[in-house]
Amino acid sequence: MTPGRIDTTKPHPARMYDYYLGGKDHYEVDAQAAQQVLNHNPYAAHGARALRLFMQRSTRYLAAEAGIRQFLDIGTGIPTEPNLHQIAQGAQPDARIVYADNDPIVLTHARALLRSSPEGRTAYLDADVREPGKILDAAELHDTIDLSQPVALSLNALLHFVPDEFHAYDLVQAYADALAPGSYLVISHVTGDFDPVTLAKIIEIYRAGGIPAQTRTESEVARFFDGLELVEPGVVPVHRWRPAAGDPSSDYTNAQAASWAGVARKR
């Protein structure tokens, strides 16, 4: 894996997400854009944490309860412990995980920090979710996971950066079609349902920075799961999906979390 040149002239959503979470792996251009968002919505960091905590809960459910041992995480983001593979391998030490992202700084950190358990394996792809062929055909993917066996496809905090002009529903369908029966689809997605005015301003900030972005309604997020069997409690506010004891996001309002989330099984 040879990461490309890091572009510090415009913000990147993974690095802005890092800023919201209090990380240090971002640049001034990312901090400025993220701070604009926080000026409009002081709870943007709450939303980022709620998304991250959902990733942890959903991964733990899939590995510990559903018995999934293979994960494809697209739109990985900058590593923040515990990472998806740490949770999955904590429940299933032989779990195999493929991470994919299109930001060189993410891939640099992935190579340095995302270490597999001795029994399992991790791999990293430099690819965009809008390139399903590149991801699904990658040698690194096929060397790591077996698509003829169940896989959990994680599209966490990603699809709001894939507006309709990029045919988001067709892309998700292409990935789902490649998965074996018994596989799972995991999605969390920012919404304007609870505070449309504020979220519209935030989308404007992202787009002004050259980042395609779009909120979706509850029904629009649910549409991504068409043809799949939703796991209880279905598509719900992200912090309401199987909340864990002591989870700090449990006290958030729906407007603070500002996302829908769901997990569904392919029959």
Task: Please characterize this protein's 3D structure.
The chain has a single domain, classed as Vaccinia Virus protein VP39 (Rossmann fold). The termini are far apart. It is 39% helix and 15% strand. The chain contains eleven helices and eight strands. α2 (28-40) packs antiparallel against α9 (196-208). Strands 1, 2, 3, 4, 5, 6, 7 and 8 form an eight-stranded mixed beta sheet that branches. It has helices spanning 13-20, 28-40, 44-65, 84-91, 104-113, 132-136, 139-142, 168-178, 196-208, 218-223, 254-257; strands at residues 70-74, 96-101, 121-126, 152-156, 184-190, 229-230, 236-237, 259-265. β1, α4 and β2 (96-101) form a beta-alpha-beta unit. The chain is globular and about 45 Å long. It is of the alpha/beta class.
Observed structural traits:
single chain, 267 residues, alpha/beta, Rossmann fold, eight-stranded mixed sheet, 11 helices
Secondary structure layout plus pairing:
Layout: H1 13-20, H2 28-40, H3 44-65, E1 70-74, H4 84-91, E2 96-101, H5 104-113, E3 121-126, H6 132-136, H7 139-142, E4 152-156, H8 168-178, E5 184-190, H9 196-208, H10 218-223, E6 229-230, E7 236-237, H11 254-257, E8 259-265
Parallel strand pairs: 1-2, 1-4, 2-3, 4-5
Antiparallel strand pairs: 5-8, 6-8, 7-8
Helix pairs in contact: 1-2, 2-9, 3-4
